């Protein structure tokens, strides 16, 4: 008996599907899976402005640079602030003023005081005892 090599695409179906509806469900699932993969590729292509199938960088938010590896790419997100600053030099001050986070120094925080340790007073909740280890 011949053994099947892992590279051989021929496979036997151990449990043949007699019902056509089962085969239709399997085909439908395969089609849905292919459509989902295609949708996911398009979404990632738009999100990262890179064609992952052809390995071509596209225009968009990220700048792509090839590294030493054959299929290695590095993405750097473009800073929209630098584009605005190049166009308008006064935009830097305006941008800093808009992006500076505000602190709540105006709102007064209540003054927190520590409890005084009064050694002489004992509450009714607790009892003072001396412990000796003689």
UniProtKB/TrEMBL annotation:
<keyword id="KW-0649">Protein kinase inhibitor</keyword>
<comment type="similarity">
    <text>Belongs to the CDI family.</text>
</comment>
<dbReference type="Pfam" id="PF02234">
    <property type="entry name" value="CDI"/>
</dbReference>
<keyword id="KW-0539">Nucleus</keyword>
<dbReference type="GO" id="GO:0005634">
    <property type="term" value="C:nucleus"/>
</dbReference>
<feature type="domain" description="Cyclin-dependent kinase inhibitor">
    <location>
        <begin position="32"/>
        <end position="65"/>
    </location>
</feature>
<dbReference type="GO" id="GO:0051726">
    <property type="term" value="P:regulation of cell cycle"/>
</dbReference>
<feature type="region of interest" description="Disordered">
    <location>
        <begin position="88"/>
        <end position="110"/>
    </location>
</feature>
<protein>
    <submittedName>
        <fullName>Uncharacterized protein LOC114239734</fullName>
    </submittedName>
</protein>
<dbReference type="InterPro" id="IPR044898">
    <property type="entry name" value="CDI_dom_sf"/>
</dbReference>
<dbReference type="InterPro" id="IPR003175">
    <property type="entry name" value="CDI_dom"/>
</dbReference>
<dbReference type="GO" id="GO:0004861">
    <property type="term" value="F:cyclin-dependent protein serine/threonine kinase inhibitor activity"/>
</dbReference>
<keyword id="KW-0131">Cell cycle</keyword>
């Amino acid at each position: 008996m011949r053994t099947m090599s892992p590279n051989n695409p021929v496979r036997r179906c151990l449990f043949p599907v007699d019902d056509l509806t089962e085969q239709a469900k399997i085909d439908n699932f395969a089609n849905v899976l292919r459509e989902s993969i295609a949708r996911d590729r398009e979404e990632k292509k738009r999100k990262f402005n890179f064609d992952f199938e052809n390995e071509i960088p596209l225009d968009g938010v990220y700048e792509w640079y090839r590294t030493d590896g054959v299929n290695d790419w590095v993405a750097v997100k473009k800073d929209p602030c630098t584009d605005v600053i190049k166009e308008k030099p006064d935009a830097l001050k305006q941008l800093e003023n808009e992006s500076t986070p505000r602190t709540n120094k105006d709102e007064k925080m209540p003054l927190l005081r520590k409890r005084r340790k009064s050694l002489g007073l004992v509450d009714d909740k607790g009892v003072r005892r001396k412990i000796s280890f003689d």
